[in-house]
């Protein structure tokens, strides 16, 4: 039922408090547009209510656009979020800028957690080359390794042994290849 009161229209309410006051769901098969260009909501109205944006088809997406209709952020039906891209390929995909983490705590933290027996990896590279650098933690062996120019260069085992030029160091420091040391080497014994 619709009700009119002092120039206000109420749908689902007999006491409309705004020009259009709807109690219930609103359906639009195109879009909702206002002269000011924005829609606001008072949700959550109480502590028990949330704002929900729902896609009817997981092949669709939610776009956040600026005044020139350029996409600022996109949420795909798969859950991937793109900032600066309308086709995010990962859960969070940013294009055209850096990412900054700020906190008022004394420590900054970035957690990258894999499932057991897998790796947590940070990749470095550019769009002109398939050669990548990476820092990886292998939870299967509790090792950490470092890759440059597409090949592993250094590994730290769970025992604390460090290998340069080898992925299986047999001493605290195991170097395969030549080494130049400009400082003093102090050893308890030589073999």
Task: Describe, in plain words, how this protein is organized in 3D.
The chain has strands at 2-5, 8-11, 20-22, 61-65, 71-76, 81-83, 92-94, 119-124, 133-138, 143-148, 151-156, 162-164, 173-175. By secondary structure, it is an all-beta fold. It has a six-stranded mixed sheet, with no helix packed on it. A four-stranded mixed sheet has the order 4-5-6-7, with no helix packed on it. Strand 9 (133-138) and strand 10 form a beta hairpin. It is elongated.
Give a short summary of the structure.
The chain has 191 residues and is mainly beta. The protein has no helices and 13 strands.
Compressed to H and E, one letter per element, the order equals EEEEEEEEEEEEE
| Side-by-side strand order of the widest sheet | 8-9-10-11-12-13
Instruction: Indicate the proportion of strand residues.
Output: 25-35%
End-to-end distance = 95 Å
Number of strands: 13
Radius of gyration: 29 Å
Helix content: under 10%
Helix/sheet category? mainly beta
Unreliable stretches (pLDDT < 50, length at least 5) are none
**Overall pLDDT level:** 84
Q: How many separate helices?
A: 0
Q: Indicate the overall shape.
A: elongated
Largest sheet: 6 strands, mixed
């Amino acid at each position: 039922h619709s009700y009119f009161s002092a120039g206000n229209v109420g749908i689902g309410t007999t006491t409309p408090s705004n020009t259009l006051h709807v109690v219930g769901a609103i359906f639009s098969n195109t879009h909702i547009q206002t002269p000011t260009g924005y829609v606001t909501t008072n949700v959550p109205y109480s502590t028990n209510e949330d704002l929900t944006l729902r896609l009817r088809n997981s092949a669709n997406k939610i776009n956040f656009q600026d005044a020139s209709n350029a996409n600022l952020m996109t949420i795909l039906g798969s859950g991937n979020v793109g900032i600066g891209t309308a086709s995010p390929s990962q859960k969070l995909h940013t294009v055209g800028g850096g990412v900054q983490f700020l906190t008022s705590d004394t420590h900054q933290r970035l957690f990258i957690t894999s499932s057991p027996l897998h790796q947590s990896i940070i990749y470095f590279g550019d769009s002109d080359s398939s050669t990548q650098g990476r820092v990886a933690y292998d939870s299967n062996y509790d090792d950490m390794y470092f890759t440059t120019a597409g090949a592993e260069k250094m590994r730290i085992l769970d025992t604390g042994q460090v290998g340069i030029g080898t992925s299986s160091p047999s001493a605290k420091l195991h170097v395969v290849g030549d080494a130049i040391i400009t400082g003093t080497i102090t050893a308890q014994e030589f073999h």
